[in-house]
Design a protein that fits this description.
43% of the residues lie in helices and 12% in strands. The chain is α/β, with parallel strands linked by helices.
């Protein structure tokens, strides 16, 4: 179920930081039309730390209503509190979604056994499959492959988003985890190579801006045509880099706004992309064949 190019979708906001529901509907329609293989609501790219539970629930409800049955809808339910993660997972997993994604507990820096208990407790109450999310650059904790393998024994823990670029880590995870457990890249720049060594896809930032190209590259890689996948990905490499010139999702929200899909709003403490980076991101979009003057679909 969780394969290919899944978009870690941005959350549209108005200038004052409130949620822009018309833009949300437009964005969902855009990804459905462009062929994204799934949508991840309220991930890091969706500004999950700054969203309320009520907001996440409404984003999820609308995504399920608009996209359910046409592509998987996944919602982020992880926090650095096990009790809160359990509560969110119990509630949101019953909102019609196809899966939940749970990030490693950030800031607390729990040991590996603590993370095992955390994820197992959340998975125990989930009504749908669980995707683990390891992003050590943000959380200051690393979910090790041996730990992932132990967690993969839980019947509802079925996949991992691994936001590290190391192909050695990919190979280690694939060797440690059972057949059928999906190992997804969380690093756009190396995602095609991850698929090339056996990975199952990517949960992508770049797919917010170039969903059709990301889907095409992943599809080619997954059918074993790495040459074709790399040709598509080569045009995206500048974009992969440019979308991290400042803390994500600052650059990607600016880029999606340049496509006319959302407004410029972003929620504090994040701020709009510094003007000195505008041309860098714009050039990367053009190199990927994306017009910054494109109108909404």
């Amino acid at each position: 179920m969780f394969t290919g190019s899944l978009v870690a979708i941005v959350t549209p906001m108005t200038a004052d930081g409130s949620l822009d529901w018309s833009a949300w509907d437009r964005l969902l329609d855009f990804h459905r039309a462009e062929g994204s293989n799934g949508i991840v609501v309220a991930g890091t790219t969706g500004e999950s730390p700054a969203l309320t539970l009520d907001e996440i629930a409404e984003l999820t409800r609308r995504a399920v209503a608009r996209c359910g049955g046409t592509m998987p809808v996944i919602v982020g339910t992880g926090t650095n509190s096990t009790a809160e993660t359990i509560a969110r997972t119990r509630a949101l997993s019953r909102a019609g979604v196809d899966g939940v994604m749970i990030v490693t507990p950030y800031y607390n820096k729990p040991p590996q056994d603590g993370m095992i208990r955390h994820f197992q407790a959340a998975a125990d109450v989930s009504a749908v499959p669980v995707i683990l999310y390891n992003v050590p650059g943000r959380t200051a904790v690393d979910l090790l492959p041996t730990t992932v393998a132990r967690l993969a024994e839980h019947p509802r823990i079925v996949a991992l988003k691994e936001a590290t670029p190391s192909l050695d880590r990919a190979r280690e995870l694939l060797a440690a985890c059972p057949a059928g457990f999906a190992v997804l890249s969380g690093d756009d720049a190396t995602a095609i190579e991850w698929i090339g060594v056996g990975g199952h896809g990517v949960i992508s930032v770049t797919a917010n801006v170039a969903p059709r190209q990301m889907q095409a590259a992943c599809a080619a890689a997954m059918r074993g045509d790495l040459d074709a996948a790399r040709r598509v990905d080569e045009s995206l490499q500048g974009l992969h880099r440019a979308l991290f010139v400042e803390s994500s999702p600052i650059p990607v929200k600016w880029a999606v706004a340049q496509r006319g899909l959302i407004g410029p709003g972003i929620r504090a403490p994040l701020i709009e992309l510094n003007v000195r980076h505008h041309e860098t991101v714009r050039r990367a979009m053009h190199a990927a064949g994306i017009s910054t003057e494109e109108s909404t679909p």
